[in-house]
Write the structure tokens for this entry.
Amino acid sequence: MLEKVESTLDELGLHTMSELLSSQCEQSLAKEHSYLEFLEALLTEEIEERKRRSFEIRMKTASFPFKKTLDEFDFSWAKGVDRRVITELAGLGFIHSATNVCLLGPPGVGKTHLSVGLGIEAIVGGNVVYFTTMAKMANELGGLNSLRRARKYLSPKVLIIDEIGYRPIDAKAAVHFFEIVSERYESGSIICSSNKGFQEWGSLFGDSVLATAILDRLLHHGVVMNIKGDSYRLKDRKRQGIASHLEVAQAYEKGATIE
Ligand code: ADP
Ligand code: MG
């Protein structure tokens, strides 16, 4: 009987229920569960396992360069990052309104970290996210004749485009990029980051009219964050630097001589 039910569950694609059937039978007998309680426990396991698997798959297909969460972000270090805005974004309302997020600032101030952190929140919320860099995207778009092969940039609920501005974009890629931004306009969010101010996007895309059209769509429903300050990557090195200078100064005070 047990085996027959297990194979029926497998046939129906309810593999977790099948796997746990025997142990749940024992547990439910011991706890004197009703039929409904028994069924509910098994169904809950199946749903939880599916959610876990779906989360893992979405994390994998998101192609994050690293996995850092918003909890790991030090808001006291970052200048120009409004914690309330990030918390609001983490509530994921921005996805439902297809609002874009643009993070601007010099290298090392946490643009990628914040993008990934928001991306992870979006995945936890059940959304499909895809992370890419402008360089990768431009390479690929430059070789396309139509957007039919660009589904991965169109279908995710959240598209993260990192590092806009490190390399100029060729004309064909720029036009496809514009088409993608237009297609996503008011239907899917873009989180982008750039080390260049918007006024420099004209030369970046090699066409100021095109750049204006891209920015028009990107910023119509958009949150812009101008991040300032020093690179977090250099933070510890700087601290070490200060420490060593202090040590030298203290040593002099104690009468040290230069060797
Ligand atoms: P950017 O994309 O602006 O160049 P990253 O997001 O790649 O910078 O940050 C560089 C490194 O420093 C990453 O490991 C990131 O996690 C870390 N980092 C940057 N800013 C912060 C911050 N405010 N709090 C914690 N870690 C940070
Ligand atoms: Mg970065």
Summary: Residues 68, 72-74, 77-78, 105, 107-113, 232-233 surround adenosine-5'-diphosphate (ligand 1) (CB under 6 Å). The beta strands are 100-104, 129-133, 158-164, 189-194, 222-226. Residues 52 and 124 are 10 Å apart (CA to CA).
